[in-house]
Amino acid sequence: MYGLVNKAIKDLVTKGYGEEKWLEICQLSNFEDEDFIDMETYPDSLTYSLVGSASKVSGIDATKILELFGEHWILYTADEGYGEMMNLSGSTFIEFLNNLNLLHERINNLMPDLKAPDFQTRNEKSNSIELEYRSDREGFIPMLKGLIIGLGKRFEMEVQVKQIEFKNQGAQCDVMLIEW
Ligand code: HEM
């Protein structure tokens, strides 16, 4: 994962719990640098390990941490120079969901080694929509949930998100039902 992701995890921890806790987490994960370079790639295993250590240090479930992280990511990226890209991705919640691949393609231009997920909306109704999610990675569904909730907040919407199809149970891909 690009350093930007791990840096956002650091930001979430230090803002919520202080620098000390972050140092504890780095120690637990045997990560000596304590900081990241946005545009450099780090092994996915480090990201998983940081989330696991944050869970141990805080006593908060790793699933919950990933969800909180997803929500935080929407605010963090908007503040860290990607605000304009966010603005370009849609002026409504639905439009934004339809442009998630375009958004990541634009990011891919800046970050050539990006392994972006793939999204496809379907079954749009007046108060719900479904989002197909495909990724080479495992374990990021809780983060996706937080991302969608955070994106809803960006458009002043209170959305509920639940997974309705599961790749690890034989479905073609993971599918989220989003309602408001
Ligand atoms: C300006 C805003 C955004 C930026 C800069 C951004 C950038 C990134 C980056 C750098 C990664 C790590 C992938 C890698 O390093 O190979 C990532 C992963 C991911 N992004 Fe985005 N992203 C943005 C918005 C969003 C939004 C709004 C969603 C969904 C609602 C989303 C969904 C995801 C998911 C689920 C992953 C996890 C990795 C995976 O599934 O394989 N992103 N994104």
List keywords for this structure.
single chain; about 180 residues; alpha+beta; H-NOX domain; 2 domains; 4 strands; about 55% helix; globular; binds protoporphyrin IX containing FE
What does this structure look like?
With 180 residues, the protein is an alpha+beta fold. It folds into 2 domains: 3-60; 92-179, H-NOX domain (Alpha-Beta Complex), CATH 3.90.1520. It contains 7 helices and 4 strands, in the order H-H-H-H-H-H-E-E-H-E-E. The chain has a 4-stranded antiparallel sheet. The radius of gyration is 16 Å and the shape is globular. The chain starts with a helix and ends with a strand. Protoporphyrin IX containing FE (HEM) binds at residues 1-2, 4-5, 77, 82, 85-86, 100, 103-104, 107, 111, 114-115, 117, 135, 137, 140, 143-144, 147-148, 151.
Give a brief description:
A hairpin with an 8-residue loop joins strand 3 and strand 4 (174-179).
Could you please say which CATH topology of the largest domain applies here?
Answer: H-NOX domain
The general outline is globular
Bound molecules: protoporphyrin IX containing FE
CATH class wording of the largest domain = Alpha Beta
Domain unit count: 2
What is the element layout, followed by pairings?
Blueprint lengths: L2 H15 L1 H10 L15 H15 L3 H27 L4 H6 L1 H11 L7 E5 L5 E7 L6 H14 L5 E6 L8 E6 L1
Antiparallel strand pairs: 1-2, 2-4, 3-4
The chain binds protoporphyrin IX containing FE (HEM).
Protoporphyrin IX containing FE binds next to helix 1, helix 4, helix 6 and helix 7.
